[in-house]
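Researcher: Let's do a round of design. I'm pasting the structure tokens now; please hold your answer until I've finished.
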């Protein structure tokens, strides 16, 4: 039974839906495909390798936030096999959609407490936060192993991603170095902002809105698109009502805070 003023009723019009899931899936695949097409073009000397430093920092956060939005719309059984594999690679041993979704659900359920799988990124000084964000691609796989172990499926999928990673490295040469350096930089910075910067204020742990000058918001929106920017600026609203689509977070802030009072 649904109560007249239940959050499901009050916020449902702002929830992400089928159309969002389809667009986000397409966006994530497109970002991954464009990154690898650019890498291939650079490896074949069709474009200079350094141009990867221009495209990858735009494609990585767009991909990350599209996948994050999808976490709230699609279980691992509801995504296609490519999405399940998450073949946008940053490190030799990496996790897939099933594992990252489990970690993200844990983050929502236990935010900033000992059971939060992302707690390691929130701890310590900003410098420690930065180091953890930049080493997160490696830490994730080993942290998952110590918490859950490695089942046959993860073993097989890790192997598949490892072969792809080695193939990209072998085929890409210097272009792969440009790719990896740009991807790691973008991933590290995005993780630092999405976790440490949004969940810490001095010694305090929580989730906080991010206020940026209007011109910064405008420039970043132009580069990364509104979904990345809205999902980041209003992460506190997202934690309060995780089913609200990123594009509605700003508009729903007042109603969501009133609901929490
Ligand atoms: Zn969070
Ligand atoms: Zn989330």
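Researcher: That's everything. Go ahead.
Model: Designed sequence:
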């Amino acid at each position: 039974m649904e109560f007249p003023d239940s959050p499901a009723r009050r916020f449902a019009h702002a929830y992400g839906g089928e159309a969002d899931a389809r667009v986000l899936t397409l966006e994530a695949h497109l970002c991954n495909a464009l990154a690898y097409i650019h890498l291939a073009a650079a490896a074949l000397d069709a474009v200079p390798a350094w141009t990867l430093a221009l495209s990858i920092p735009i494609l990585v956060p767009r991909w990350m936030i599209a996948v994050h939005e999808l976490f709230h719309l699609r279980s691992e059984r509801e995504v296609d096999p490519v999405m399940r594999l998450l073949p946008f690679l940053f490190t030799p041993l990496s996790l897939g959609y099933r594992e990252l979704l489990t970690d993200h659900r844990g983050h929502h359920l236990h935010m900033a407490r000992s059971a939060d799988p992302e707690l390691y990124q929130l701890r310590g000084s900003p410098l420690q936060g930065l180091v953890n964000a930049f080493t997160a691609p490696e830490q994730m796989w080993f942290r998952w192993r110590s918490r859950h172990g490695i089942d046959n499926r993860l073993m097989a999928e890790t192997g598949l991603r490892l072969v792809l990673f080695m193939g990209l490295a072998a085929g890409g040469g210097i272009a792969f170095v440009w790719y990896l350096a740009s991807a790691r930089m973008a991933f590290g910075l995005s993780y630092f902002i999405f976790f440490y910067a949004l969940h810490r204020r001095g010694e305090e742990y929580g989730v906080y809105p991010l206020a940026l000058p209007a011109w910064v918001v405008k420039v970043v929106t132009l580069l990364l698109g509104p979904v990345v920017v809205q999902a980041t600026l209003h992460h506190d609203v997202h934690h309060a009502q995780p089913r609200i689509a990123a594009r509605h977070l700003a508009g729903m802030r007042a109603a969501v805070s009133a609901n929490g009072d």
